[in-house]
């Protein structure tokens, strides 16, 4: 048997079986550590849940808190909220220039599209305020968290850090959700962040930047870079240089600390810092930075054509009122709504103002040293005293008062005489207006030239009785009228109010009063109290001297109702009272219930240029922000008098200034030989004094008196030549504004001829008339010719024309 050499497997040896591997045992933790670990884990879980709940609550709060934002952040329509601009024609260049801005007390903004705004100005803000503007979602969370930690937990920065993006700053500009501290401050920040995120999702960065640059605030009430460029540099924003861009961007950081007028050094440091940032961020070159930093701060000089003061002129006040009323009529809205539309609508108003004339009138009406209008003062009793009042004090320093029977306490203030002036051209354009003496301290203050009515006194005589008398052919230049009262005392027609009051007869009827002869008086009296001398005077003389006795006789021929209808309807003197002003006293002597405004009276005197009347107006057009016509003035023009009557009246009123008997004799302006016309006026008891004067270019009304009618004789004395005051102010003003104007003559009329008349009969002069003068007559309505007899010394009429002989009747003299 063969034996194999291969190895045999040996059976396993018997022994202990191998143990099953056991799971490695952890080292046991200390029980306290085990408890802390479990607690920490629980707290982390709870923290996560609380933070999640807080985040949900924060989002819910932000959504609810901003639910009523409405159109607050509607950037598509935000452009509509901007100031309206008043533009005027520069009298030297004929170009349209900005004159004023109609702004509320809160802001002044003019919109500029982003394309108009220089890139340097855009990045002047971005580089300093929000350098990651184009890359962030409306909020810079890294800076926000850092600022919150620094503010509320740990001061990790040396100073308070700002984290607001341009979106967040825009939200502050557009909402009233302003800074607060504590919990409310944190909630405000939460609302702001949510709004910024929503804003960033809804609008492009370009739209947001445009809105931001147009709503950012500067000094005073200025908002937006376009307004700032105009205010500080008198430039359109598109024309700004690099350093001017940096200057504007500097002011917004702290408008008080960087005010260009009060803190220019601080502003320059800030400006240079901004340009340094722009260089470091690659927006400008180092050369640009160094050249810009070397520039001095040069601000625009004051533009005399533009009212930069926050206090608006009297013209602007009146313009605002006129446009507001026209918006009310157009839109059917109330006054408050119309005002808001004008303040925020961004309209361009083409005004009629002549900036040079307005400035000249304002300077004259400053009345420094009482140069033109003497100061009269008197005490006035009132129920309350304002800060502007000059209160009357007792000798012991206590206020002067009295207590009425009903317990009302009355105070006393010293009031002074006031004045108003307004100038129009013969197309109804209001060129200049000042409604008070001294420096104007408030916008929309009392405007005596535009909105206050006064009795006209004798200024109404030519626009009513005399004009219609000539127009109707009832009188002419030399019609002889008796210088005596229309009604005598013995006629028992006109009551003597003073006598009746003193004797308790006021309640009696006219028939009962017939038993009291002394209760009646002759009427009218002339200025100064005389009743005339009973002589016959030519019409021109009575008008030049402003004799009431002559004017009343002309008015009696025309008829009080005819005069009222002409003044009220044709000349648009609609503040006259139809119920109480239809009478000779009111319509010839000017003692109306309310009277008229200086603006309306000046407009009425337009008719003595060529017979045409045009409604006075302060603007021609109002354009919306897209340049479309929104409003056109509603002025109307029409022929109120024939050109023949207008020219004759023009010549008659010239005598007020040029004849040696006129009430303003010799007080015409010396303006390159140009002629003038005018009429003085004095209301009862010298409570209102007037002059209305015209030149070939302008017609101007001047008023002087107390705001509450008061006899100026009591405060200025009887001997003061008060009637000359308004005339001399007008003369000085006209000489200034017409100094460089070319010569111009009043228009003549082909239907008017010059003829010599007999000074005794008023008829055209015959061959034997011993005294002649020249008058102006309608060619189709000449007087008869005088047939004077030397033997009898009697003048009679014959129908024949004679050649004119130059001369002038100077019978008598009076003042008004």
What does this structure look like?
The chain has 816 residues and is an alpha+beta fold. It is 35% helix and 14% strand. The strands form nine sheets. It has a five-stranded mixed beta sheet with strand order 2-1-5-17-18. Helix 4 crosses helix 5 and helix 4 crosses helix 6. The protein is elongated. The model is unreliable at 1-9, 157-161 and 798-815 (pLDDT under 50).
Largest sheet: 5 strands, mixed
Mean pLDDT: 86
Question: Low-confidence runs (pLDDT<50, min 5 residues)?
Answer: 1-9, 157-161, 798-815
Figure out the total of helices.
25
The coarse overall form would be elongated
Helical content class: 25-40%
Adjacency order of strands in the biggest sheet: 2-1-5-17-18
Question: Measured on Cα atoms, how large is the radius of gyration?
Answer: 42 Å
User: Strand pairing plus helix content: what structural class?
Assistant: alpha+beta
First and last CA, distance: 177 Å
Instruction: List how many beta strands DSSP finds.
Output: 26
Strand content: 5-15%
Key features?
5-stranded mixed β-sheet; disordered C terminus; single chain; alpha+beta; 25 helices; 816 residues; 26 strands; disordered N terminus; 35% helix; 5-stranded antiparallel β-sheet
Short description:
By secondary structure, the chain is of the alpha+beta class.
Lay out the secondary structure.
Elements: H1 31-65, E1 84-89, E2 96-102, E3 108-109, H2 119-129, H3 141-153, H4 166-174, H5 182-202, H6 205-215, E4 222-223, H7 225-233, H8 242-251, H9 264-280, H10 286-293, H11 314-331, H12 335-344, E5 348-351, H13 355-365, E6 377-382, E7 390-391, E8 401-403, E9 409-416, E10 418-424, E11 430-434, H14 460-471, E12 480-482, E13 494-495, H15 497-502, H16 510-513, E14 520-521, E15 536-538, H17 539-544, H18 548-558, H19 560-570, H20 584-587, H21 598-604, H22 607-610, E16 612-614, E17 619-623, E18 629-632, E19 637-639, H23 643-658, E20 677-682, E21 688-694, E22 699-705, H24 713-716, H25 723-737, E23 752-758, E24 772-778, E25 785-786, E26 797-798
Parallel strand pairs: 1-5, 3-4
Antiparallel strand pairs: 1-2, 5-17, 6-9, 7-9, 8-9, 10-11, 10-22, 12-15, 13-14, 16-19, 17-18, 20-21, 21-22, 23-24, 25-26
Helix pairs in contact: 1-5, 2-8, 2-9, 4-5, 4-6, 8-9, 9-10, 11-12, 13-25, 14-18, 14-19, 14-23
């Amino acid at each position: 048997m063969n034996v194999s050499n291969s190895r045999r497997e040996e059976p396993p040896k018997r022994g202990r079986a191998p143990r099953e591997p056991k799971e490695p045992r952890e080292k046991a933790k200390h029980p306290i550590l085990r408890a802390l670990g479990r607690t920490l884990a629980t707290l982390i879980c709870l923290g996560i849940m609380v933070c999640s709940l807080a985040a949900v609550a924060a989002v819910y709060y932000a959504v609810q808190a901003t639910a009523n934002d409405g159109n607050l952040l509607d950037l598509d329509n935000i452009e509509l909220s901007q100031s309206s601009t008043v533009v005027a024609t520069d009298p030297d260049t004929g170009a349209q220039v900005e004159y004023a801005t109609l702004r509320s007390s809160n802001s002044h903004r003019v919109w500029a599209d982003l394309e108009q705004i220089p890139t340097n100005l855009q990045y002047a803000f971005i580089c300093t305020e929000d350098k990651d503007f184009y890359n962030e979602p409306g909020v810079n969370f890294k800076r926000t968290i850092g600022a919150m930690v620094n503010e509320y937990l740990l001061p990790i920065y040396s100073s308070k850090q700002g984290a607001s993006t341009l979106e967040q700053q825009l939200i502050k500009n557009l909402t009233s959700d302003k800074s607060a501290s504590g919990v409310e401050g944190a909630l405000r920040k939460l609302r702001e962040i949510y709004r910024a995120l929503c804003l960033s999702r809804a609008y492009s960065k370009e739209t947001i930047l445009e809105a931001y640059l147009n709503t950012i605030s500067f000094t005073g009430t200025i908002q937006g870079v376009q307004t700032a460029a105009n205010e500080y540099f008198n430039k359109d924003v598109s024309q700004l240089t690099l350093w001017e861009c940096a200057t504007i961007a500097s002011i917004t950081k702290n408008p008080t600390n960087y005010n260009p007028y009060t803190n220019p050094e601080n502003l320059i440091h800030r400006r240079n810092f901004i340009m340094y940032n722009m260089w470091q961020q690659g927006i400008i070159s180092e050369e640009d930075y160094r050249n810009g930093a070397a520039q001095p701060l040069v601000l625009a000089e004051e533009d005399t054509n533009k009212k930069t003061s926050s206090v608006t002129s009297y013209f602007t006040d009146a313009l605002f009122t006129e446009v507001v009323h026209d918006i009310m009529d157009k839109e059917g809205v109330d006054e408050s709504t119309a005002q808001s539309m004008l303040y925020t609508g961004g309209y361009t108003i083409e005004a009629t103002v002549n900036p040079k004339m307005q400035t000249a009138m304002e300077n004259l009406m400053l009345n420094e040293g009482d140069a033109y209008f003497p100061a009269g003062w008197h005490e006035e009793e009132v129920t309350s005293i304002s800060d502007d009042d000059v209160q009357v004090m007792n000798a012991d320093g206590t206020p002067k008062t009295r207590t009425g029977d009903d317990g009302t306490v009355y105070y006393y203030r010293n009031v002074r005489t006031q004045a108003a002036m307004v100038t129009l051209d013969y197309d109804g354009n209001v060129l200049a207006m000042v409604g008070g003496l001294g420096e104007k301290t408030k916008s929309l203050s009392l405007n005596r030239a535009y909105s206050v009515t006064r009795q006209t006194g004798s200024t109404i005589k030519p626009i009513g009785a005399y004009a219609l008398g000539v127009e109707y052919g009832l009188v002419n230049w030399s019609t002889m009228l008796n210088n005596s009262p229309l009604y005598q005392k013995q006629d028992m027609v006109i009551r003597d109010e003073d006598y009746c009051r003193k004797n308790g007869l006021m309640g009696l009827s006219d028939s009962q009063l017939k038993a009291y002869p002394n209760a009646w008086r002759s009427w009218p009296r002339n200025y100064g109290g005389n009743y005339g001398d009973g002589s016959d005077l030519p019409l021109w003389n009575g008008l030049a001297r402003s004799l009431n006795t002559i004017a009343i006789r002309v008015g009696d021929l025309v008829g009080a109702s005819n005069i009222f209808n002409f003044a009220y309807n044709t000349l648009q003197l609609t503040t006259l009272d139809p119920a109480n002003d239809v009478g000779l006293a009111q319509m010839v002597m000017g003692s109306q219930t309310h009277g008229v405004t200086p603006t309306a009276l000046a407009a009425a005197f337009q008719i003595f240029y060529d017979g045409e009347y045009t409604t006075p107006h302060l603007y021609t057009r109002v354009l919306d922000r897209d340049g479309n016509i929104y409003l056109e003035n509603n002025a109307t023009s029409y022929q109120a008098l024939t050109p023949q009557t207008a020219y004759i009246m023009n010549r008659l009123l010239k005598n007020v200034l040029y004849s040696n008997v006129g009430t303003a004799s010799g007080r015409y302006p010396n303006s390159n030989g140009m002629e003038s016309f005018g009429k003085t006026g004095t209301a009862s008891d010298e409570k209102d004094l007037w002059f209305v004067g015209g030149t070939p270019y302008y017609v101007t009304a001047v008023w002087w008196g107390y705001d509450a009618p008061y006899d100026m004789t009591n405060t200025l004395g009887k001997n003061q030549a008060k009637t000359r005051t308004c005339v001399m102010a007008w003369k000085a003003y006209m000489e200034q504004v017409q100094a460089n104007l070319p010569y111009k003559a009043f228009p003549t009329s082909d239907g008017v001829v010059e003829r010599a008349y007999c000074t005794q009969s008023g008829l055209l002069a015959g061959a034997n008339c011993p005294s002649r003068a020249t008058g102006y007559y309608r060619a189709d309505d000449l007087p008869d010719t005088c047939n004077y007899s030397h033997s009898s010394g009697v003048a009679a009429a014959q129908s024949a024309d004679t050649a004119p002989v130059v001369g002038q009747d100077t019978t008598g003299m009076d003042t008004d």
